[in-house]
Amino acid sequence: MPDFYQHDVITTIHDLRSASLDSLENMLRESTQKQKIGLVLPVTASDMRAAPFSKIVEELEVADYIGSIVVSLGVAPDQADYDETCRKIAPLGDRAKVLWTDGPAVQSLYEELIDADIPLSTPGKGRSVWTAFGYLLDDPNVETFVLHDCDIVDYNRQMLARLCLPMVHPSLDYEFCKAYYARVTDRMHGRVVRLLVAPLLRAFIQCFPENQFVRFLGNFRYPLSGEFSLTRNLARTNRVASDWGLEVGTLAEVYRNTSLKRVCQVDLACLYEHKHQEMSITDSKRGLMKMALDILTTIYRTLASQGIVLSHSTFVTLRASFLRIAQDCIRQYAADARVNSLEYNRHDEEAAIEAFARCVTQAGEIFANDPSGNPAIPNWTRIRAAFPDFPKRLRESVC
C-alpha cells in the first residue's frame, strides 16, 4: 500500500500508484541500450507444466528490454521434461535458453567440480540459480542479473519492470534490489515471514542490539521473497546456499560484499500469490518446518561467522523472547485481518508459532553439533580461478 516510510539502513522504493507500465518499460528500453539484463527463471518440471509458467512466458514475449533469459530446469530427470520446456519457451526466440541441470551435459560439468572438492552434489533451487549465473557471466554484455520464481499465479510485467528499473536506470546507483509484496488472498499467507522471521529478528535485536547484520535483515519487509536483482559483480562474488536458506544466505552475502547504501527493496505493486508449502508441524524434515530449520541455522551460522558467541543459554533466551513477540504479532494480525475482512484462524496461528519456537532451539542444537553445516556453493570468482574456461563450457552445453 502507498506510504513514504523509509527504513534506517536500506532504501525502500514504494508503489505510489503514479507510474504506468508504459512509462516504466519505456525507461527500461532507454536504460538498456548499452547493457543487457539477464533474467533467471528457476523452474521444476511440475511447475513448468502448471498454468503460471505459461502466463509468465506470455508476459515475457512483450518484455523486449530483457536481453537474455535462462530457464534453469531442475527436478526434471527425463528428456521429455527438457523437450517440453523448450517448446513452451519457443515464443521467446533465441534470447531464451533452457539450462537443463539434470541433463547429461551439465551433470558431467558438475562431476568435474565435485571431483575437485567443490560442493555441488546437493540439487535444488540454489544450485539451479548458481548455474544460471555462471551461464550469464560468460556473456560480457549482461550487467544486471534478475531472478524471480515461476509459480507466481498473478504474474504481470509491472512486477518485472519494477524489479529491474532500480538496477539499470542511469540516475540510480544500486547493486542489489529485493522485492516485497503482500501475500494475501481471502486470508494472510507468508507464515514463515509473519510468524517466524519477523518476530525472530525483533528477538535477535533484543539479544544483540549492536549487531548490524540483524539490523540489516530487520529492514527488509519480506526477507524471504524469491525475487531480486543484482549487479554482475555481486553475481560473481556472492556464494549461494543450496537449501531453504537461499534467500537469507543471499542477504548475508550482499551484506558482506557491498555497501548498504547501494541496497534497496521495491514494492512489486501486487497481491503476490503462489503455491503454498504444508505446515507439517510433526515432521521437521519437510514443509515449513524444514524451511524454518534451514533459515534459522543459516542465520545462526552467519552470526557465528561474525564473532557472535551462541550458547545453549542464548537459544533458550531467544526462544522465550521470540514466543512473547510472536504472540503479540498474532494479536496485531488478528486486528489487521478483521478490519480488512480476511479469514483468520487464531488457533492455527498460535499452533504455528509454538512449532516455530521449537525450531528455534532445535536449530540451535543442529548448529551446536555442526557449526559449519552444508557449505555454500563457492562464488564464480573461485570457479573461474580454478577452471578459467568453465563458464564458456557451461554455455556451450546449452543448445
From TrEMBL:
Lineage, top ranks: Bacteria, Pseudomonadati, Planctomycetota, Planctomycetia, Pirellulales
Enzyme nomenclature, EC number: 2.4.1.266
Listed InterPro entries: Nucleotide-diphossugar_trans
Enzyme class (EC, first level): transferase
Organism: Aporhodopirellula rubra
Name this protein carries in UniProt: Glucosyl-3-phosphoglycerate synthase
Keywords: Glycosyltransferase, Transferase
Superkingdom of origin organism: Bacteria
A molecular function (GO) term: glycosyltransferase activity
